[in-house]
C-alpha cells in the first residue's frame, strides 16, 4: 500500500519554476478590456448626440486597428496579438478623439497609422514611445486640418449621413469661441460642458460619462489608472488658468482634457514608470495644453501636450525612487 | 499596542492561512530519515558517522572546523544505512545520512536538561547554541551563533524577534507563539543575555494579533515588560523581511549591502528563538521543527512538528495524502519558497512549509511583453526598478543591471506578484545577480 503511494508521487507531473508561486489575477489583457468598457458610456453618448455616423466612425476605427495589427503581424511573421485587446482599445480611443464629420477613408488612414507606424514599427505592444491613438489623430489632423475642424451641433439629426456634407449643421466648439474671445460664460454653459451638450470629438464631450468610467475602474481596482498623472495634469491647467485670471472650470471641462488626462496620458507604455516621473509628466502636459489653448494655432492642446511628454518619457524615467539603504537617514 | 510598518512598496497577496486554527501536531512515526549535512549557509558539515553505525537521538552526526558552519544531529535512534549525495529542496546538493529508525527513541548522553541556566556565561550560551546546530529557521538557515557575535565595533542595542510570518499559507510561527509563548519568551531572555541589549521588540503582523496579545501577557507576567515590547505590524508582504522589519520597528535603515548589526540590530525568527530555549533549557539540539503543510493538494492541512530529515512524501501521507491533480510542490512559502519536482526530498532546517498546489490556486499564465505599467516599481520594497533590471538581464547587459542595483534585490517576489504581464522578474533578476557576483569574483582574482 505504502509503496503504491510512493510510486504515485514519483509519477507526479509538476511545474518547477522560480518564486513567487502565486500571482495577482489581474492581467494585461484584462486591463485592456476594462479600460475599453470604461470608455463605452462616453462613446455611446457621442453616437447618441452626433448620430449614427459617429457610430460608424467608431466601428471603422476599431475594425481598422485590429485588422492593421493582424495583417502587419502576418506579413512580418510575428505572433498574432489582437486578442490582447490593445489594438481594439487604440481603435476605440482614436475614434473617440476625432470629429463626428471625419470621412471614413480618413478614419482608416488614422487608425491604421496609429497601429502600424506608432506601435508596430517600434516593436509592438510595450515598445512604442508615442501614444498610438494620439499619433493617429496628429496624422489626420495635420494633414487635413480644414476637413477635421468641422464640428457637429449635438443632436441635430441622428440619421444624417456623411454624403450630404453641405447640409451639416456645424457649430463652433466652446474652445473655438474662447480663442476668438467670443465665449459667453453662462451658468448653462458649465452644465452643457459637463453633460456633453456641446460640439466636439465623438467621445470627449460628456465629462460625466467619462468620469463614471474612471470611477468604474477605480471601483474594480484602485491601481488600473494611476491618478498621479490626471491629478497633476488637470491641476496644472487649473492653476495656470487661475494665474492668468481665466475661467478655471471652463478650462477643466472643455475639449479633451478629461479624456486625455484620465485615459490617454495614463497609457502605461508611453508614460513614465516612476512616481516622480509621472508627476512631472502631468505638469508638463498641463503646461503645454494651456499654452496651446491660449497662444497656439490650434484651439485644443491636450493631444500635443500628451504627445510632447510621451517623447520626454525616457528622460522622466531617470527620476528613480530612492533605493532602500542608500542616502537619506540611516 | 502600536501598529508599525515600512512605507515604500509591498503587496497584499491573499493570506490563505487555512491552518491558522490547527494546533501543532507531532509526527512521531518515521521509518527512516535522510539528514543532509549541508542545510545551512556556510561550510558543509563533515560526517561523523559511517555506514552501519548505531546512532542515538540527538547525537551529533556531522560537524566542521570551518568558521561559518553548523553541526547536524540525528533526530532518531537507529542505524546508518547509507551516506548519499542528495538534492535539497533549494536545489543545492549535499551529502546526506540515511538513518533507519529502530523505534527505541534512545537519547544521546549529551542531551540533558539544565538546571543552572541562570549561571551560564555568554560564552557558554553561544557554545550551547552552536553545538545544538541552531540556524535561522525563517528560511535562510544562517548559523545563529555567528549572527549572535557581531563585530565589536558595531554595538548592538536592539533585538528584534520576527513573528511577522508575512508569507501566505504559513502558520507555524503563529502557532508557536500561541502554544509555546512561554518558551519563546524564555528564548528571548537568553538572547538578550547573550547580546546584552536593553530593548527587545517582538514584531507580529496584525492578522495574528491574538498571538501578540498572548505574548504580551506572558511578558507582563514574567515581569519583563520593561525590556520586551510586543508590537503589531501592518499585514503587508514582505513585513518579515529583516531589513523592512527593522525599518518598521526602529526607523533605521540597513545600508545597501550591509547587515542588521550595522544599524545596531539583530533579528531572530520566532522558531529559532524557540529552538534556542529547547537547546539551552532542555539540552535538545535542533532535530525537529514546525512546518505548515497546506495547499488545496493536501487532504488534511496541518501544522506539524516533524523531525529534520523526514521525507516530504511521508509528511504528506501523514496529512492524509495528496490529491491527484497536484500542479506544484513548494518548500517554504508561496512568495519565496522553492518549487520541487518531487516529494522525495527531506525536510531540512530551513523548511518552513510544504505546499501542494492544484489548479485551484495555480493559474498558469503566459509571459507577455512588459507594458511599463510601473506596478513593479510601486511594489518593490527596495526602491528598485524591476522592469529595467529584467530588461537588461534578458539582453545580457549585466553591467546595466548592476547600475540599476540588481544586487539590492531581496528576491521577495512582490514585483512578479503584481506584474500584469506575468513576467518572470525574480528569475531574470536572480540571473543578473548571479552574473554580477561571478564577474566581481573574477575581478578580485
Descriptive account of the structure:
The complex is a heterodimer of chains A (330) and B (445). Chain A is mainly α and 330 residues long. Chain A has one domain (28-316): Ammonium transporter fold (Orthogonal Bundle). Helix content of chain A is 59%, strand content 1%. Chain A has helices spanning 2-10, 28-50, 52-75, 86-96, 104-119, 132-143, 145-148, 174-179, 187-195, 207-220, 228-243, 248-253, 257-264, 275-295, 302-316, and strands at residues 151-152, 170-171. In chain A, strands 1-2 form a two-stranded antiparallel ribbon. In chain A, α3 (52-75) packs antiparallel against α4 (86-96) and α10 packs parallel to α13. The longest helix of chain A is centred in the first third of the chain and has 24 residues, at 52-75. The radius of gyration of chain A is 23 Å and the shape is globular. The termini of chain A are far apart. The model of chain A is unreliable at 1-6 (pLDDT under 50). Chain B is α/β, with parallel strands linked by helices and 445 residues long. In chain B, the strands form four sheets. Chain B has a six-stranded mixed β-sheet with strand order 2-15-14-18-16-17. Chain B has a five-stranded parallel β-sheet with strand order 1-12-11-10-13, sandwiched between helices. In chain B, α5 (209-221) links the parallel β11 (199-205) and β12. Chain B is built from 13 helices and 18 strands. Among the domains of chain B are: 3-14 and 112-281, Rossmann fold; 375-444, no CATH class. In chain B, 56% of the residues are buried. In chain B, α10 packs across α13. The model of chain B has no long low-confidence stretch (mean pLDDT 95). Classes of the chains: A mainly alpha (330), B alpha/beta (445). Chain A: It is a multi-pass membrane protein.
Amino acid at each position: 500500500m505504502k509503496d503504491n503511494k510512493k510510486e504515485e508521487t514519483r509519477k507526479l507531473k509538476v511545474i518547477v519554476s522560480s518564486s513567487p508561486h502565486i500571482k495577482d489575477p489581474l492581467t494585461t489583457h484584462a486591463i485592456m478590456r476594462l479600460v475599453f468598457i470604461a470608455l463605452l458610456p462616453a462613446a455611446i453618448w457621442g453616437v447618441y448626440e452626433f448620430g449614427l455616423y459617429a457610430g460608424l466612425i467608431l466601428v471603422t476605427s476599431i475594425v481598422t486597428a485590429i485588422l492593421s495589427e493582424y495583417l502587419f503581424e502576418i506579413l512580418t511573421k510575428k505572433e498574432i496579438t489582437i486578442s490582447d485587446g490593445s489594438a481594439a482599445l487604440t481603435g476605440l480611443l482614436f475614434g473617440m478623439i476625432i470629429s463626428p464629420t471625419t470621412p471614413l477613408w480618413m478614419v482608416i488612414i488614422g487608425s491604421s497609422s496609429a497601429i502600424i507606424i506608432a506601435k508596430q514599427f517600434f516593436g509592438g505592444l510595450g515598445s512604442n514611445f508615442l501614444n498610438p491613438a494620439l499619433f493617429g489623430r496628429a496624422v489626420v489632423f495635420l494633414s487635413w486640418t480644414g476637413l477635421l475642424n468641422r464640428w457637429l451641433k449635438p443632436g441635430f439629426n441622428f440619421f444624417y449621413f456623411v454624403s450630404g456634407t453641405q447640409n451639416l449643421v456645424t457649430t463652433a466648439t466652446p474652445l473655438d469661441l474662447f480663442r476668438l474671445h467670443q465665449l459667453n460664460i453662462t451658468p448653462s454653459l458649465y452644465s452643457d460642458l459637463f453633460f456633453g451638450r456641446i460640439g466636439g470629438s465623438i467621445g470627449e464631450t460628456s465629462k460625466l460619462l467619462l468620469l463614471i468610467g474612471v470611477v468604474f475602474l477605480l471601483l474594480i481596482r484602485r491601481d488600473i489608472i494611476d491618478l498621479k498623472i490626471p491629478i497633476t495634469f488637470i491641476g496644472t491647467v487649473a492653476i495656470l488658468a487661475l494665474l492668468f485670471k481665466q475661467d478655471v472650470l471652463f478650462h477643466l471641462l472643455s475639449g479633451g482634457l478629461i479624456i486625455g488626462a484620465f485615459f490617454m496620458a495614463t497609457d502605461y507604455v508611453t508614460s513614465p514608470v516612476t512616481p516622480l516621473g509621472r508627476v512631472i509628466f502631468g505638469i508638463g502636459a498641463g503646461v503645454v495644453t494651456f499654452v496651446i489653448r491660449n497662444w497656439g494655432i490650434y484651439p485644443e492642446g491636450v493631444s500635443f501636450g500628451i504627445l510632447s511628454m510621451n517623447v520626454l518619457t525616457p528622460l522622466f524615467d531617470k527620476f528613480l525612487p530612492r533605493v532602500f539603504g542608500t542616502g537619506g537617514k540611516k | 499596542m502600536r501598529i508599525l510598518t515600512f512605507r515604500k512598496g509591498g503587496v497584499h497577496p491573499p493570506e490563505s492561512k487555512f491552518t491558522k486554527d490547527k494546533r501543532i501536531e507531532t509526527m512521531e512515526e518515521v521509518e527512516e530519515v535522510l539528514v543532509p549535512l549541508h542545510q545551512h549557509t556556510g561550510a558543509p558539515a563533515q560526517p561523523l558517522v559511517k555506514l552501519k553505525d548505531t546512532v542515538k537521538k540527538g547525537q551529533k552526526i556531522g560537524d566542521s572546523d570551518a568558521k561559518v558552519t553548523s553541526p547536524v544531529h540525528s533526530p532518531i535512534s537507529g542505524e546508518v544505512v547509507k551516506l548519499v549525495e542528495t538534492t535539497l529542496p533549494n536545489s543545492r546538493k549535499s551529502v546526506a545520512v540515511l538513518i533507519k529508525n529502530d523505534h527505541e527513541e534512545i537519547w544521546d548522553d549529551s542531551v540533558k536538561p539544565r538546571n543552572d541556566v541562570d549561571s551560564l556565561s555568554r560564552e557558554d550560551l553561544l557554545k550551547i547554541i552552536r553545538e545544538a546546530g541552531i540556524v535561522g529557521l525563517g528560511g535562510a538557515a544562517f548559523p545563529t551563533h555567528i549572527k549572535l557575535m557581531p563585530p565589536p565595533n558595531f554595538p548592538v542595542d536592539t533585538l528584534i524577534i520576527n513573528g511577522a510570518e508575512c508569507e501566505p499559507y504559513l502558520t507555524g510561527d503563529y502557532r508557536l507563539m500561541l502554544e509555546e509563548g512561554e518558551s519563546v519568551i524564555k528564548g528571548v531572555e537568553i538572547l538578550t543575555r547573550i547580546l546584552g541589549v536593553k530593548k527587545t521588540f517582538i514584531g507580529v503582523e496584525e492578522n495574528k494579533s491574538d498571538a501578540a496579545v498572548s505574548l504580551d501577557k506572558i511578558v507582563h507576567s514574567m515581569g519583563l515588560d520593561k525590556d520586551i515590547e510586543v508590537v503589531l505590524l501592518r499585514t503587508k508582504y514582505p513585513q518579515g523581511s529583516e531589513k523592512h522589519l527593522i525599518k518598521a520597528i526602529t526607523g533605521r535603515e540597513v545600508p545597501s549591502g550591509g547587515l542588521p548589526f550595522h544599524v545596531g540590530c539583530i533579528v531572530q525568527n520566532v522558531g529559532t528563538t524557540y529552538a534556542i530555549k529547547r537547546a539551552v533549557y532542555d539540552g535538545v539540539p535542533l532535530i525537529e521543527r514546525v512546518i505548515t503543510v497546506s495547499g488545496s493538494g493536501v487532504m488534511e492541512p496541518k501544522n506539524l512538528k516533524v523531525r529534520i530529515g523526514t521525507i516530504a512524501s511521508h509528511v504528506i501521507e501523514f496529512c492524509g495524502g495528496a490529491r491527484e491533480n497536484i500542479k506544484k510542490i513548494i518548500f517554504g512559502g508561496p512568495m519565496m519558497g522553492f518549487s520541487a519536482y518531487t516529494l522525495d526530498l527531506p525536510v531540512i532546517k530551513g523548511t518552513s512549509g510544504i505546499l501542494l498546489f492544484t489548479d485551484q490556486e495555480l493559474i498558469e499564465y503566459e509571459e507577455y511583453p512588459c507594458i511599463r505599467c510601473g506596478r513593479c516599481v510601486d511594489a518593490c520594497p527596495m526602491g528598485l526598478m524591476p522592469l529595467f533590471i529584467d530588461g537588461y538581464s534578458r539582453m545580457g547587459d549585466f553591467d546595466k543591471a548592476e547600475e540599476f542595483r540588481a544586487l539590492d534585490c531581496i528576491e521577495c517576489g512582490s514585483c512578479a506578484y503584481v506584474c500584469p504581464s506575468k513576467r518572470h522578474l525574480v528569475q531574470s533578476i536572480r540571473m543578473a545577480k548571479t552574473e554580477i557576483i561571478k564577474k566581481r569574483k573574477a575581478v578580485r582574482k
